[in-house]
Design brief:
With about 475 residues, the chain is an all-alpha fold. It contains 19 helices and no strands. Helix 12 packs across helix 13.
């Protein structure tokens, strides 16, 4: 038998999983990259008025500065996870980081609205490669046991902190250096990641010659993008707007086509057998609800602090620092709690704490900054940090190494879709209540406060619903 025949006769062996003699340093760099991805969804919010003045953008165009990033990010996450499984998690991660950094440079150098929106869309597309690949690398560097719990604890805390830190850093950078700084800050971090990861993670893993599900990728990507667009624009244009109805109908048709394609594909983008893993199913459902809670909550807080508590933009950002500190601090405690109480019990308890903190904030009224905002925000940070840690851990528990990119893409997709849905629905409820109170003769501050009361209570309902999902969707 000749050499080529002997080679063909041997079964193919997948390359070894990523290994690193400095895996905790590698985790820190991966978490830093994920922090940037989450941060960029919120850091531009406070800078938007300055951006509008500099580039001549009206309110509708400014809303697209956020939407242009969220659309490709949410729509491409599932595909990004599968590409990482197919071509290598480290390779796809580094491509995502490089593209994200270059798009950030282009955004900061933008001279008009068209250039900025295009750069933001490219940012979102490369973020959809970066995010699932980084979480997949984490699960492979920490295969199981207490070390994985600690690693996911740090990961969840850093990812959750990105939402809280966006308002703080956006205010500081815009006030100190101007609006381009909210994009330029990604460059040094991106360069650090690109240099460090090849040194810290020396081996990659691919799934070999498995064909990509092109039809599934196209229908899933376009369907998710249409769904995110419909949810994002519903609150602005109205739910009966022809544009919103058209996007919603397209999303339903494309996602229905995706289901049909996946049932017949030999190598599906999303094998429905994946959801036989009840832990992954429950974790993704909870992350959907938590995404809705988080995006709506931090959007409301930035407005609530300025229009109800009358703080300026910088003070509003600094006021969320205790929440961020609580969110990070709980990460070191969660693994020990999980070891004693169990993962699902800890997740359910964290969601209850989150809901209780939001209810406290909603009902505190005008009791002063400390009792009315500071203390409930610390409780919210504790509940939110523990929730991110345990929901992520549940969503990837029991997932095979060959599907780690898929699992990571699903977690991020659930969070993004949940965020768009939560903000659209709860933001719409708050706006309607505010308008009703204004029509009834209430002052502007009282009307805004009344609208946010309903939004905060809605966030609490989502959190408690997540606790119920955790208890009902049991492992088997």
């Amino acid at each position: 038998m000749n050499a080529s025949a002997a080679t063909a006769a041997r079964p193919s062996i997948a390359p070894p999983a990523p290994r690193s003699s400095h895996r905790w340093w590698a985790l820190a760099v991966l978490a830093l990259a994920q922090f940037l991805v989450v941060l960029d969804a919120s850091i531009v919010n406070i800078a938007l008025p300055t951006v509008g003045t500099a580039l001549g953008l009206d309110t509708a165009a400014l809303a697209w500065v956020v939407t242009a990033y969220v659309l490709p990010f949410g729509g491409l996450l599932l595909l990004g996870g599968r590409l990482a499984d197919r071509f290598g998690h480290r390779r796809v991660f580094l491509i995502g980081v490089a593209g994200f950094a270059l798009a950030s440079l282009a955004a900061g150098l933008s001279v008009d609205g068209t250039m900025l929106l295009a750069a933001r869309a490219v940012q979102g597309a490369f973020a959809a490669l970066l995010a699932p690949a980084s979480l997949a690398l984490l699960t492979q560097l920490f295969p199981d046991g207490a070390a994985r719990g600690k690693a996911l604890g740090l990961w969840g805390a850093v990812a959750g902190m990105g939402s809280a830190a966006g308002v703080l850093l956006g205010g500081v950078l815009t006030a100190s250096f101007g609006w381009p700084a909210v994009f330029f800050v990604n460059l040094p971090v991106g360069i650090l990641v690109l240099v460090a990861i090849p040194l810290l993670i020396t081996r990659d893993r691919t799934s070999g010659g498995e064909r990509m599900d092109a039809a599934g990728a196209a229908t899933a990507t376009l369907g998710l993008a249409a769904a995110v667009a419909a949810l994002s624009e519903g609150g602005t244009l109205g739910w009966t707007s022809p544009i919103v109805l058209g996007l919603g109908s397209a999303a339903l048709a494309l996602l229905a086509a995706f289901v049909l394609v996946e049932r017949r594909a030999s190598h599906p983008l999303l094998p429905f057998s994946f959801f036989r893993n009840r832990d992954a199913l429950a974790g993704n459902l909870v992350m959907l609800l938590v995404g809705g809670s988080t995006v709506a909550l931090f959007f409301a807080l930035s407005v609530y602090l300025q229009e109800v508590l009358h703080l300026d933009a910088l003070a509003a950002g600094l006021s969320q620092l205790p929440l961020a500190i609580a969110l990070i601090g709980i990460a070191g405690v969660v693994p020990a709690v999980v070891a004693k109480a169990g993962l699902r019990s800890t997740l359910a308890g964290a969601l209850v704490v989150l809901g209780a903190g939001v209810v406290w904030l909603a009902l505190a009224g005008s009791t002063g900054f400390v009792a009315g905002f500071l203390l409930p925000s610390v409780v919210i940070g504790l509940g939110l940090g523990a929730t991110f840690v345990t929901a992520t851990q549940l969503a990837v528990r029991g997932v095979s190494e060959s599907e780690s990119g898929l699992a990571s893409g699903l977690v991020n997709t659930a969070q993004q879709i949940g965020g768009a849905l939560g903000l659209a629905i709860l933001g719409g409820i708050a706006a309607a209540q505010t308008s009703a109170l204004l029509a009834a003769g209430s002052g502007a501050t009282a009307a805004t406060s009344g609208g946010f009361l309903l939004l905060f209570l809605g966030v609490a309902v989502l959190a408690i619903t997540g606790a119920g999902v955790t208890a009902l969707v049991r492992s088997r």
